[in-house]
């Protein structure tokens, strides 16, 4: 327990020893994440950082993936860069906590945060870009190395940082095997891509994926859908901004619309019968915010009766709102107005807090102030759940014995 954690909890109106959990952050992959772990025969083919045209660049089996370090917006002096100015920064420019796990824990102590759930960067927020590698053996190896590194990160930080399992999602049998392997290493949840149908596979509502949901139910592994986790939704800009806008405006519009991409995931999971057939699997809408969800669920409830008459009680035993409260969760960060009302509608066991560090819209360094403004009007039990208990329960986090 740090003095900052005591201060943070005091501002939130919570007990001094309550552990604040940040349910969505990202780690800029270290330069040697893959090269330091690859078998010798693949050491020159796995993802690596090379200097190309004077810029650190991720290269995978000879193909350029993208700039290295450009997902972090906080520089080494602790300044947050706004707009697209962050895109020119690399490892030498960004705050070490963006890519160094021990520096990250130090920063968490300074911010009063006990644990963070970690999502990737380079290959998409759901690992969707791994599919672009044509060598299936190398593709699977690269995913497994990433998961090995995540398990090591959890162990090396004494259960402060928790990576979610990246799936070899192009192969459902391999995905099931990887979930079992990673669960045995102590990992706590699954990071699932949202668009297998985009590359010609069955969509996630089809029975093809039932073995995936079955193993998640068996092992109590929550399934996380991060925004931008499909090959057709991962662009910073997306297709929403009009062509006449400048790049910063396109970033603003594209980022705001990306949150709503999870509305499609939510609707399709529910109407696809996934929650009906797998009533114990827990799903998380990550980095989508929560203010829009009550209206959207009300719309799904209405459309269930108006557009699919006769399905309630036959195809579906619950309304979409009821499915959400039973099996779905969502995270908020920059929202202040309307959070209490959304929590009341969605259920105070269905909402978690996040910061999105170190991405462009992250809460830094004022995360606690914004969070306290958002949850201040909630009853203490609801504040406890949203800021701590829900994430601990959902991900079965191994908190210190004094907190059990």
Automatic annotation (TrEMBL):
One cellular component (GO) term of this entry: cytoplasm
Entry-linked Pfam families: Amidohydro_2 (PF04909)
Domain Amidohydrolase-related: 21-397
One GO BP annotation of this record: secondary metabolic process
GO molecular function per UniProt: carboxy-lyase activity; hydrolase activity
Keyword Lyase in annotation: yes
Keyword annotations: Lyase
UniProt xrefs under InterPro entries: ACMSD, Amidohydro-rel, Metal_Hydrolase
Name of the protein described by the UniProt record: Unannotated protein
